[in-house]
Amino acid sequence: MTDRPEPSPGDEQRSADLTPPPAAEASASDLLGAALGGAARRAGLDPAEGASTGHVVWAAMGGWRGVLESVLPGLVFIVVYTLTIDPDTGEGDLWLSLGLSVGIAAVFTAARLIARQPVTAAIGGLIAAGVAAAFAAFTGEASNNFIPGFITNALYGSAFLISALIGWSLIGLAAGFLMGEGTAWRADKRKRRVYFWLAIAWASLFAARLLVQLPLYFADNVTALGTLKLVMGLPLFAPLVAVTWLAVRALYPRGESNEVTAAE
Q1: How many CA atoms does the CB half-sphere of 12 hold within 13 Å?
Q2: Nearest CA-CA partner of 103 in 77, 141, 136
Q3: Alpha-carbon distance 115 to 122, whole Å?
Q4: What is the DSSP letter of 44?
C-alpha cells in the first residue's frame, strides 16, 4: 500500500476556505421568530387556535383590566393637568398630575400581585408611567411626559419598516413560528406580499402617531397632545390587530398548519 501524503498547511487552508459558513441569518431569524411568536401567543394571538376575531382583539388588549391599565394613567394625567391650568401662566399642576398617574399604575400592579395574576403588562405600564413622569419632572415641562412614547413609536415603526424592506417581515416571522413553518413562508410569493404590507401597515401606524403628535409637542399643547395620544392608541391598535389576524388566517386554510407541523 502507498502511504498517503500528509496534508500541507496550504491544503488545510484551502479546505477551510471551501467550508460553507454557518447559517447565522437563518438561526437568528428562527430565534427572533420564536420570540415574536411566543409573545403573540401569550397575548392570545395564535391563528392556529381558531378563536373569533373579536375574542382575539379583546385578548390582545388584555380585556377590561388591560384597557384600564393602558388608558387610565394617561387619561388621569391629561384631565388633572387640564383642570388645574392656571389662566395666568397657562400651566397646570404638573406634580399632582404625575403623582396621580403613576399612583394609578402602581395600584394596578399591586392589585395583580395580590391576586397572583400575571403582572407583565401592569409592570410594563408602571415602568412606562414612571419613566415618562421622570422626563417631565426633571425638566419641569409637562409635554416631556410624552417623550418616551415618541421614542417607542420611532423604534417600533423603524423595526417594522426595515423588516418589510429587507424581506423579513416581523409579522411573517411571528406567524411562521405560530403556524409551524418557520421561515418557509419566504418561498411563497403570496405570503411574502401579505406580510410585507402588514408590516408596512404597522409601520404606518407608528409613523402617523409621530406625524400628528410631534407638532403638538413642539407647540407645547399638552391638552391636545394627551388627547390625541389616547385617540391614536387603542382605537387604532384594535382594528389593525383585527386586520392582521384576518389576513394571516386567510393565508392558512384550516388544517394547513397541522400538516406543516406534521411534515416537519
Answers
A1: 5
A2: 77
A3: 13
A4: T
pLDDT in tens, 91-148: 899 999 999 999 998 998 888 888 777 767 667 778 888 899 999 999 999 999 999 9
Please classify residue 195 by burial: count the beta carbons closer than 10 Å to its beta carbon, then call 0-12 exposed, 13-18 middle and 19+ buried: buried
| Cα 36 from Cα 32, distance rounded (Å) | 6
The residue with cell 431569524 is 29
Q: How many CB atoms lie within 10 A of CB 264?
A: 9
Model pLDDT for residues 232-264, shown as the tens digit of each residue: 999 999 999 999 999 998 998 765 544 444 444
Question: Which of 134, 135, 128, 86 shows the shortest CA–CA distance to 104?
Answer: 128
> Among the residues of the chain, which ranges form H helices?
9-18, 24-42, 53-61, 63-83, 94-114, 120-139, 147-165, 170-178, 189-218, 222-231, 234-251, 256-263
Global pTM reads: 0.81
- Measured distance CA(245)–CA(174) in Å, rounded: 12
Are the C-beta atoms of 119 and 109 separated by less than 8 Å? yes
Angle between helices 63-83 and 53-61 (to 10 degrees): 50
- Residue 93, amino acid: D
Question: What percentage of residues in the chain have a pLDDT greater than 70?
Answer: 82
